[in-house]
Amino acid sequence: MADRIPKIVPLLISSLEIDESDEKMLAAAITYAKNQGVNCRYLGKGKKEGHLVVVDIDSDAGKSAYESLRPGQVKLVFSNEKISAKNTVSLTKPLKTGALTPLFLRLANKLDNLLGRRPPINQAPTQTTKKEEAPVEIVETLFHILHDAKKNRHTIKASVNGFPSLMVNGARNLLATEMGAEALKAVLATPSREVAVEHIEAADIPATSSNGINVSSLDSALWMAGIMWRPNIPIGGCDLDTPVRLKAWPNFTRNNFFSEHLKLSAALAVRPISLMKLHNMTDIALEEIICFYNAAYTIGLIDTNNETPRQSENSVAPSPPIKKDTKRRGLLTRLADRLGFG
Amino acid sequence: MIETDKIIFTGPVGAGKTTAIAAISDVAPVSTDVMATDSTRQLKNKTTVGLDYSYISVGNGKRIHLYGTPGQERFSFMWKILSRGGIGLVLLIPNDHPDPIGKMEFYLNAFEGFIKETGVVIGITRVGIDDNATLTQYQEKLFERQQVYPVFEVDARSDNDMSTLINALLAILM
Fold first, then answer.
1. Given the DSSP bridges, would you call strands A52-56 and A74-79 parallel, antiparallel or unpaired?
2. Contact A337 B153 (CB under 8 A)
């Protein structure tokens, strides 16, 4: 199947609207969980992109922060009242270390195991066992099937009930289907187990659009699927601290993109930067950065050889005078606003 | 020409510089097009021998000036003068040129100093007409030169495409 998710990526935890003393208690619980072998990492306060998000919902800001989280995110809620909602675990205030720590450990351990990164906690995890852990079982989708076809240069027909089929020539980077762009967007997230795949001959796939069949670049579909698929985990053996860089900019005029993608490309085209550092540098949500990385990786734009410095790394002064000019920077910002990308 | 808040559009004859400037500017560009009498005539009837000029207003009376260089290489002496103090470079390469990759390299070399001081974005125009290279080939050439610059397929008539190109330039500069 497609790339397995790297096992070294930690369970990401973030918090919203919790006060200082609760954050200290949370930090202690995270430390305890780490000591118990849970591979987790605290992203900090005010960040929404954790696999597990801790929220105090007793204020209006807290309620609104909770509501802004994705349905699929697991939430640990601090509140004066017990809350019952999907993917939400509630802890009644006032918080006590004796209650928070074991609850947090159970939750973190369960999530960590769901992501398949470590053995159950009662197996006394060690560095050795962590390296021998089982493969990750994150739900794979049609996106992964298409990525596989491209990577292995396969020619396949993929069918999802209720939709026209997709014919893919991985070697020629072609995708042929009767589906329009919107239907394609919808179908790309279909779990792999619901997709019927058969190998076909390259000659069965038309080279140009005709008779209602649209022939387009497979990379465009992979890019679109990559930026939509939100596993919060980078694919292709990368962890959040490994420096990565771009081999080439994505073809933004022919693919969907967000304005953040321009900033990310500009940063990653010059020198290797880890995704976590990029997040800290740009203040772009880690989730968006990971989606961008995954999309770029899938269409072969990530440079895995980070050893060779680029001309731009060597020859451009660290901060050319023009880039330090704040007046001009203001002007450039206004131009970006004027062009609709501010 | 002495204005400093300017973006320079360059590229060979027929790349679409005048069209690209027209696509994103506030007013129709002032061009110095004349009837072509040299080998350019094989490519188009009129060609820019001086320069193109227009601007984008960004509020408070401020403008970003857009200058297009003449395409003929015999006017290359003007390129340096024109680009002095500029913000960045938009290089347009027509994909139906007999050697589009070679042309890209030629312009990257010609504007090397300016690019180092500022930044460059590359728009591949006339794609799908008589293609002589793929986007991947441009990307590979840039990678080989260790210059990972933005290179996009563009329609010089499209304000969307040209805005995306300019915004990529801004992303580099900011």
1. parallel
2. no
